[in-house]
Specification:
alpha/beta; Rossmann fold; 3 domains; nine-stranded mixed sheet; four-stranded parallel sheet; 46% helix; globular; binds 1,6-di-O-phosphono-beta-D-fructofuranose
Length: 556
Amino acid sequence: MINKNALATARSSYKPKLPGVLCGNSPIRTSSLKQDGDTEIRALFPMTYDMAPVTFEGDAQTPGTSSPLRIGVILSGGPAPGGHNVIAGLFDAIKQIHSGSTVFGFLNGPDGLLKNKGIELDATTIDRFRNTGGFDIIGSGRTKLESEEDFQKSLATASAQNLTGLVVIGGDDSNSNASKLAEYAKAQGASICIVGVPKTIDGDLKGGGIETSFGFDTACKVYSSLIGNIQRDAISARKYWHFIKLMGRSASHIALECALQTQPNITIISEEVSSRKLTLREIVDGIADTIAYRAANGEQFGSVLIPEGLIEFVPEMGNLISELNELLAAHGEAFNGLSSLPQKREFVSAKLSSPAAALYRNLPDDIANQLILDRDPHGNVQVARIDTQRLLIDLVEAQLKEMKAAGTFKGSFSPLPHYFGYEGRCAAPSNFDADYTYTLGFTAALLLRERLTGYIAAVGGLTRPASEWVAGGIPLARMMNLERRHGKMVPVIKKALVELDSPTFLEFANNRDTWAKSSCYIFAGPIQYFGPSEVCDQTAYTLQLEHAAQAAHSLT
Ligand code: FBP
């Protein structure tokens, strides 16, 4: 069976660009250690906190090691474009280090490590997946490695597989847990070394020497391409308002980046909503006013970008969701015993505080139902599943009706909802992500060659040509902070939210009024894999605006 088209065939032979420092000799250079730090975190990570960031340098022949490496690899959490290239980079590097080295892929995420289920990844398998999207080479999963029992099982598997190293490719939570596992392993005297790789399309694992997580670049380019197509349709058909929800569980980086790439009429940034304590009513008023303004100018069409995590950032909705979480946990049995949805809604309304109940009763039926029905295994409301785009459409429609009655809106309103998420998460990586992930995998191998544990692979200078990137590792424990989770303080890597004084947000804020009033859309077009560098190797605006300066400093 033929399962490759001409593009896939051509793309499979793409050779990811490696930074010059990794093309030859790679001696380790330890940078000077800052003595300051967080005493509480240091106390929790006595074995891995006081380690120095490292960088690799060299241009001679790569030295081999006397014995082969055997590296386990896990893909953790949601897929992100470039995961396969991390594994390809890892594979190529360990073979270069010692031809007898091997990679063992754990199946379906951390669960594979706990259950010792996996496959040998040989050259033929790796070659089939080079430069492809998805995580299907070994699958992914959201099982968490967090309890002592999980750590014991992980070490038992590592020993059964004779692993010298383990690479955890994941987001903030997975890397937090990789750090805890590394600390545990070292405290137990286990010889395995554990290294993380920063992954997530959400773009919220960055800072402290990590410039961006892989997959963000490609996902934003795919969504921007689709948004551009929709905007071209909007300005052609001149009759639809498109409400587009964009993936990104919590932070609004994807919405912000796509706004800069496409210049839509309205973009909501959750972090701004939270900081300005905007109510749902105020958000809706803002959208309705823009619609009325454009209608008065003969433009009865437009685009609205909505970040997936918005609901939790609207203070009154955030309160409602927390109250629902608590009351459903406390009265789960009685709630589940009710047979009809109206009964269930009445049951929760009666138990909510009066402001929360008033808000809940005013929500459209399908949203009110989603809030009590879609819950995760811990019983919490699945906010990512809420159709915020439909909720806003309903509320804006109602507001426009009122405005029409008052004579302040004279146009028509034909809204269309969209949700872009899975369309981009497994796309074939852009050149940037293909190069970045291959380099991350290569770097992870070098960290393991050096027998370093509790590090995350870090590649910097990312807005320069790949040949000039710097590569090394950052101690994971140094990225931790204490956060309240399930009622107690635990060390975790802090999610990087959009900062309202960042150059990226300011660039957006300085332009949004013009974008709202005129139709100065950018039609981003599809990702280009072949062609001039300025077309194919362009990095995300977020990276260009916020991180170019720090990038060079973080690792040099
Ligand atoms: P990660 O943080 O694991 O990379 O996942 C990101 C993400 O794609 C979010 O943007 C989205 O909210 C979530 O995964 C959806 O995951 P799922 O399909 O497992 O519900």
